[in-house]
């Protein structure tokens, strides 16, 4: 058996960043830019009002107070999206809405609240009283204060979140060049499996692994392709694997242990190369990794264990970082905290344990409690968990009150 770190290093060594694709910006969320983005325009393109009010020359309000307002002649009104043609001179003001370009001659905007507009019932206004003096440039957004024309606004390698998509839209971009999402083929193996939606014969179980794994693939940005079920026969496994040769990663579940019907690793050895097939961890010891040889390319293959908890945990530790690396992501790690255990955990065989726990925060401290029985077939132990508590190989027992590193599953990066 190799260590978790050795296994992860070997897995990641097989993967490179994928090629780019141009897509509509709304479809690029969660992907990584494959280009430097320069702005062809300034944002905002013109000086404009940051508040509803009156555009004026700041000197026209000099010395203004509520008791002695400065009276200005109102020469017009300008709304957002419109351009004022008349120039604002000394002793004049123009009613202006937020976002409207500043009229010629004006250098500031005084808010409605700082005028006597509410006290003047006649409309349209021909005069306005200003209650306070204002500094030059007040309530004005300067042209290019956000983005200057020609500026590098987003660097290649940037992860596109909603705010970056908004920046692209603000400079008029409709598409972006991003690193494409990996295509991940998913195959479940085992004669005991039945597809969901079908009657369940005695002795059979539903194929849950394909759906939990496909959901994990989608969660982390990959494109899942469910291949269905292959029985415990070499020809069936080979035929299904043949359907995955155009994918960027093949994930199988089951068939990688040491039983008579654990055939996936044997097929892997015949059709490709095996890098390793056991890892010093619990759950998830039977984990095979290698490559399948296609006609003109090699497809990395990660053979996950058949037990549903083992399958999900090994995906988190090995498949998830591989998918993120292919997508050009820099941070491949999940958040980690130090938590006080509220449950006892024993380690009987010197493997690293990944215990399913629910973590809560109280002040500056974190506390973790087991989600119940920890059998590798108890999928509800994952459904109740938001983290994995890590018990080192050399630690035989963790008592209540002791602390462990805890890998957070549900925290967003």
Gross geometry = elongated
Gyration radius from CA atoms, angstroms: 32 Å
Q: Class of the largest domain, according to the CATH hierarchy?
A: Alpha Beta
The strands making up the biggest β-sheet line up spatially as 15-12-16-20-19-17
Query: Tally the helices: what do you get?
Result: 7
Average pLDDT figure: 94
CATH topology of the largest domain: Molybdenum Cofactor Biosythetic Enzyme, Chain A
The proportion of residues forming helix, as a percent range, comes to 10-25%
Fill in the keyword field for this structure.
413 residues, alpha/beta, Molybdopterin biosynthesis moeA protein, domain 3, 4 domains, 27 strands, elongated
Question: What can you see in these coordinates?
Answer:
- With 413 residues, the chain is α/β, with parallel strands linked by helices.
- It has 4 domains: 4-17 and 181-326, 3-Layer(aba) Sandwich (Molybdenum Cofactor Biosythetic Enzyme, Chain A); 20-44 and 145-179, Molybdopterin biosynthesis moea protein, domain 2 (Alpha-Beta Complex); 48-141, Molybdopterin biosynthesis moeA protein, domain 3 (Beta Complex); 336-408, Beta-clip, CATH 2.40.340.
- The protein is 17% helix and 32% strand.
- Strand 19 and strand 20 (298-304) form a beta hairpin.
- Helix 1 crosses helix 6 (308-326) and helix 3 (209-219) runs parallel beside helix 6.
């Amino acid at each position: 058996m190799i260590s978790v770190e050795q296994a992860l290093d070997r897995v990641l060594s097989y993967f490179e960043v994928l090629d780019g694709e141009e897509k509509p910006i709304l479809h690029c969320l969660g992907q990584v830019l494959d280009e430097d983005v320069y702005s062809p325009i300034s944002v905002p393109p013109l000086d404009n009002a940051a508040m509803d009010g009156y555009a004026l020359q700041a000197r026209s309000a000099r010395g203004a107070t509520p008791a002695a307002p400065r009276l200005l002649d109102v020469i017009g009104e300008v709304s957002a999206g419109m351009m004022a043609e008349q120039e604002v001179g000394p002793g004049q003001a123009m009613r202006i809405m937020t976002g409207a370009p500043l009229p010629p001659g004006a250098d500031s905007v005084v808010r409605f609240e700082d005028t006597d507009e509410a006290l003047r019932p006649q409309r349209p206004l021909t005069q306005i009283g200003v209650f306070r003096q204002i500094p030059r440039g007040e309530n004005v957004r300067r042209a290019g204060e956000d983005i200057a024309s020609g500026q590098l606004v987003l660097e290649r390698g940037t992860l596109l979140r909603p705010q970056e998509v908004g920046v692209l839209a603000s400079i008029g971009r409709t598409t972006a060049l991003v690193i494409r999402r990996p295509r991940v083929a998913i195959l479940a193996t085992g004669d005991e499996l039945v597809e969901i939606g079908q009657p369940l014969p005695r002795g059979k179980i539903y194929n849950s692994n394909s759906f939990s794994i496909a959901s994990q693939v989608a969660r982390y940005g990959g494109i899942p392709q469910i291949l269905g079920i292959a029985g415990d026969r070499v020809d069936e496994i080979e035929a299904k694997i043949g359907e995955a040769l155009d994918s960027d990663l093949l994930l199988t579940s089951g068939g990688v242990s040491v039983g008579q019907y654990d055939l996936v690793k044997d097929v892997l050895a015949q059709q490709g190369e095996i890098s390793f097939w056991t890892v010093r961890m619990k759950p998830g010891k039977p984990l095979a990794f290698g490559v399948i040889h296609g006609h003109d390319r090699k497809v990395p293959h990660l053979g996950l264990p058949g037990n549903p908890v083992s399958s999900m945990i090994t995906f988190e530790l090995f498949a998830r970082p591989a998918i993120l690396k292919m997508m050009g992501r820099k941070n491949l790690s999940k958040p980690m905290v130090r938590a006080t255990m509220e449950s006892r955990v024993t380690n009987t065989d010197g493997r690293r344990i990944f215990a399913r726990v629910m973590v809560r925060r109280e002040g500056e401290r974190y506390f973790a409690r087991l989600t119940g029985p920890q059998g590798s077939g108890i999928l509800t132990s994952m459904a109740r968990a938001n983290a994995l508590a890590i018990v080192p190989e050399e630690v035989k027992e963790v008592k209540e009150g002791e602390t462990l590193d805890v890998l957070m599953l549900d925290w967003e990066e």
